[in-house]
Amino acid sequence: MGSLFDHGHQESSNGFFFNPSITKGEVITCKAAVVWAPGEPFEIEQVRVDPPKNMEVRIKILYTSICHTDLSAWKGENESQRAYPRILGHEAIGIVESVGEGVSDMGEGDYVIPIFNGECGHCAYCESEKTNLCEKFRVNPMKSVMSSDGKTRFSTIDGKPIYHFLNTSTFAEYTVVDSACAVKLSPDVPLKKMSLLSCGVSTGLGAAWNTANVKPGSTLAIFGLGAVGLAAAEGARSRGASRIIGVDINPNKFVKGKSKGVTEFINPKELDTPLHEKIREMTQGGVDYSFECAGNLDVLREAFLSTHDGWGLTVILGIHPTPRMLPIHPMEIFDGRRIVASVFGDFKGKTQLPHFAKQCMDGVVNLDGFITHELPFSKINEAFKLLGNGESLRCLLTL
């Protein structure tokens, strides 16, 4: 079994020492953060990572960060999605260590970001301009094994399987993903910032650009000022929105919001009138767009009602637990308000993310400020506490 740093390493353009020839085709033993049961602390374990099979890629993870989806999965909030032991994580950047048979769009030493919403490029969904879902590799929280053979590529030292998460499983020094779920980037990308494109920034900013197609001079309200909500604000700011109202019960988020273009703030706890009535009053009838980023159905209803009748659009970005249903009566939609959900900001990952990364590097989008904390991988439990307590946007873990 190989280890990347055994001997003969080479330096990459970003300063990382790398020599895949010593591990290619071998089972790698490395560290991973394994969750064994809902809510139990992550255990840093030695795990085995198999070589990639047909149309798969093995990646050395350099940086990974934590999203609220990881937090929800760690808690096991949706019982039907539970699978343990499991390696969570879906926001990261890394280097291709080796590729399986048939992979031609990336190779050893390439920088890649894993994406939870894959793109095979040839199914009816991928060929359609109407969706960014893929027939086989779309986001699927129920999926816990690889597509090709229904087995895992992770195992304990004594050979017991460890399950995958969201097509990516980035809380490990090495992971194996389907090639449809890895996006090759330019070799000169800023690695830490580009890790954000795996989920949070792409989801929020893409919702403003692609899903809502925010117009210059428009008004909007963002419900929940975490990383996704602030990315939506950044997307709206870059599109020339005139007013961006930020809604959150944590006033500490307001300072960060200003740097992302938020012009006004509302703390619902300080209101003596319904939230949507306050927003309608502020905007003479309601906002053009609202973005629900909290994963709370009561908040979703307020977001829907805060938009202007006749043309208001609400975009759902929050992850909602079952079994409660949409809190909207069909007749309320007859007033012209629309509601839609956005997956991965409606970006097609393989074909559109490299251009988006270039836009970020060219200054069209400001990625500064999203990473609020940095910790070594061994302190992953501390990082989860920071997110759960509302103290961090993204905590970057160095592997």
From TrEMBL:
Q: Which cofactor does it need?
A: Zn(2+)
Coiled-coil region(s) at which residues? none
The transmembrane residues are none
* Keyword check for NAD: yes
Please give the biological process terms from Gene Ontology that the record holds: formaldehyde catabolic process
The superkingdom listed in its UniProt entry is: Eukaryota
Q: Does the keyword Acetylation apply?
A: no
Q: What are the entry keywords?
A: Metal-binding, NAD, Oxidoreductase, Zinc
Annotated Alcohol dehydrogenase-like N-terminal domain ranges read 55-185
CDD domains the UniProt entry points to: alcohol_DH_plants
Q: Which InterPro entries does the UniProt record give? A: ADH-like_C, ADH-like_N, ADH_Zn_CS, GroES-like_sf, NAD(P)-bd_dom_sf
Its cellular-component GO annotations read: cytosol
Which part of the chain is the Alcohol dehydrogenase-like C-terminal domain? 227-346
Q: Which GO terms describe its molecular function?
A: S-(hydroxymethyl)glutathione dehydrogenase [NAD(P)+] activity; zinc ion binding
Summarize the subunit comment: Homodimer.
Which PANTHER family would you find in this protein's record? ALCOHOL DEHYDROGENASE, ALCOHOL DEHYDROGENASE-LIKE 4
Recorded family membership: Belongs to the zinc-containing alcohol dehydrogenase family. Class-III subfamily.
- Full protein name: Alcohol dehydrogenase
